[in-house]
Amino acid sequence: MIWRSRTARTLPPMTESQPTHVVPLEAGAGPENPPCPACGEPLFGWLAARPYLRGPTSRCESCGLGVVGASSGAAEALRELDRLGEETGVRIVNRASFTCSLGGAGWSGLGPEAHYLFTVESVRRLVAGRDQVVGSRRWAPLASLAITWQSLLNSVTLGHNVALGALGRGQAAPAPKTWQRRIDALASIVLAIPALLIAVPLELAGGLLRRGAVYRLNFELL
Ligand SMILES: [Zn+2]
């Protein structure tokens, strides 16, 4: 069984005299809910498998880290984190962004190459294991806008990340049939400007509320 929970599941009291029962996240741990590589809390099911993903997707409800397919643990997550930059800093597509919350499976941070889906908090926990702290976080507005724009387009196309793929910005998962790919190309062109007009205020709000789509994080040694 895949557990779904917020930070803690609260059962309503039967009467006013009975105490509120709170089940900690740890109670959900088990073979189907392995520990989060960043913080150790159990991972819960998030999205079903899709043809272009390496497997079903789970997420940590404590630090927000997402995992596509299986995880081998913190060392692997750190290696993938370092591929996003270098040991002094990285640029992450934020799984805790407005865009991800609204986009769900259409979020463009999900793609054929996606394995670990980072948040600022999950990065903070991961790098703490090698005596580093996140010294600064900077919202990357243009990269964020591109992610939000593509996530909106993903909601109307049959393929995934088609527009950014065509622009050479990441790996697309095209629709399987030729006629579907033609429809996707047409939809991406026709809806490019309308999607941009929605993406701009959405991403501005995300950036202002520290839930932008892309962040640059710099690390410092403890
Ligand atoms: Zn976690």
User: Helix count?
Assistant: 7
Beta-strand percentage range: 15-25%
Described by the principal axes of the CA atoms, the overall outline is globular
Distance between the termini: 40 Å
The sequence of SSEs as H and E is: EEEEEHEEHEHEHHHHE
The proportion of residues forming helix, as a percent range, comes to 25-40%
The number of E-state strands comes to 10
Rg over alpha carbons: 19 Å
Instruction: Give me the side-by-side strand order of the main sheet.
Output: 3-4-5-8
| Strand-pairing-aware structural class | alpha+beta
**What ions, cofactors and ligands are bound?**
zinc ion
Task: Flag low-confidence runs.
Answer: 1-12
Mean pLDDT: 89
Characterize the largest beta sheet: strand count, sense, and whether it forms a barrel: 4 strands, antiparallel
